[in-house]
Amino acid sequence: MSSALLTRARAGDHDAFAELVDPFRRELHLHCYRLLGRLADAEDAVQETLLAAWRGLPEFEGRASVRGWLYRIATHRCLNAIRDAGRRPPLAPMPPFEAPEPTRHHEVPWVQPYPDTLLPEPAYLRREQVELAFVEALQQLPPRQTAALVLCDVLGFPLAEAAELLDTTPTAVKGTLQRARSTLRTRATQPPPADSPAERDLTERFAAAFVADDVDAVIALLTDDAWLAMPPAPHQYVGTAAIAGFLRASAGWRAGRRYTRLPARANGQPAFALYLDAAPAGLVVLTLDGDHVAGVTRFMDDTLYPWFGLPASHR
């Protein structure tokens, strides 16, 4: 960091401040998303972080890195947001048809997908640390455990520095981290390499069968213990029989109307946007395992489309 740049920023130079913080904006947004699980909440937290940083420049002496300073502000903003707002799930949409009884209920229906176009440079990321299942698992930890695990295990902050960021001691962070690691549970999958021919082929075959209501073809591409979730609705269907029952009920309600689709990517995973009668009908994110689909998460939230650069209608 240039001391001259910091001096200019302290003197009220907005361009110097932007030059100081802009290199970290993307990774801060992803950090806030990991802690909060929602795109707009992450955006709000980043804006509050940058405003607090601008106002706090006179107290920043430059002994710590700008990156660490910003992460400290952002982490506390996110923890405050969780404490103030709680984990209230959004209003669950009701299916317009008689749906089968779900297998189980989704524990974190507020989580949204993250557009790959917003991710920082791949060199900063490991795929398993942005995948949807990982973000959902983080939401089920106590907030300070989530913060400690993300700071240390994902971002690589040393224990002592993470303690400074969290205003606590290294011993306390170590204990919090151990509890988080012992609790965190994600299902291990072996997806094809991102954007590989194998990934593209499996995604295309599944999407084509899905929009054509070819339930048998969809089921043939699923693992035996695959699941279907539809956030913000809490319903989940687990296993091929349960998923087939739901898909057939849904297809029957549409009475022959067919979807159209557009490709997308979310959380480092393949995805596609659905349209029914040209209107948005859900963003589908696929969890792949080998040459099968292990999970289908269909986000029933039209506000997601602008985040992914998707049009408001498509025929």
Automatic annotation (TrEMBL):
<keyword id="KW-0804">Transcription</keyword>
<dbReference type="InterPro" id="IPR007627">
    <property type="entry name" value="RNA_pol_sigma70_r2"/>
</dbReference>
<feature type="compositionally biased region" description="Polar residues">
    <location>
        <begin position="180"/>
        <end position="189"/>
    </location>
</feature>
<dbReference type="GO" id="GO:0016987">
    <property type="term" value="F:sigma factor activity"/>
</dbReference>
<dbReference type="InterPro" id="IPR014305">
    <property type="entry name" value="RNA_pol_sigma-G_actinobac"/>
</dbReference>
<dbReference type="GO" id="GO:0003677">
    <property type="term" value="F:DNA binding"/>
</dbReference>
<dbReference type="InterPro" id="IPR036388">
    <property type="entry name" value="WH-like_DNA-bd_sf"/>
</dbReference>
<dbReference type="InterPro" id="IPR032710">
    <property type="entry name" value="NTF2-like_dom_sf"/>
</dbReference>
<feature type="domain" description="RNA polymerase sigma-70 region 2">
    <location>
        <begin position="20"/>
        <end position="88"/>
    </location>
</feature>
<keyword id="KW-0731">Sigma factor</keyword>
<dbReference type="InterPro" id="IPR014284">
    <property type="entry name" value="RNA_pol_sigma-70_dom"/>
</dbReference>
<dbReference type="InterPro" id="IPR013324">
    <property type="entry name" value="RNA_pol_sigma_r3/r4-like"/>
</dbReference>
<protein>
    <submittedName>
        <fullName>Sigma-70 family RNA polymerase sigma factor</fullName>
    </submittedName>
</protein>
<dbReference type="InterPro" id="IPR013249">
    <property type="entry name" value="RNA_pol_sigma70_r4_t2"/>
</dbReference>
<dbReference type="InterPro" id="IPR013325">
    <property type="entry name" value="RNA_pol_sigma_r2"/>
</dbReference>
<comment type="subunit">
    <text>Interacts transiently with the RNA polymerase catalytic core formed by RpoA, RpoB, RpoC and RpoZ (2 alpha, 1 beta, 1 beta' and 1 omega subunit) to form the RNA polymerase holoenzyme that can initiate transcription.</text>
</comment>
<comment type="similarity">
    <text>Belongs to the sigma-70 factor family. ECF subfamily.</text>
</comment>
<dbReference type="InterPro" id="IPR039425">
    <property type="entry name" value="RNA_pol_sigma-70-like"/>
</dbReference>
<feature type="region of interest" description="Disordered">
    <location>
        <begin position="180"/>
        <end position="200"/>
    </location>
</feature>
<keyword id="KW-0805">Transcription regulation</keyword>
<feature type="domain" description="RNA polymerase sigma factor 70 region 4 type 2">
    <location>
        <begin position="133"/>
        <end position="184"/>
    </location>
</feature>
<dbReference type="GO" id="GO:0006352">
    <property type="term" value="P:DNA-templated transcription initiation"/>
</dbReference>
<dbReference type="Pfam" id="PF08281">
    <property type="entry name" value="Sigma70_r4_2"/>
</dbReference>
<dbReference type="Pfam" id="PF04542">
    <property type="entry name" value="Sigma70_r2"/>
</dbReference>
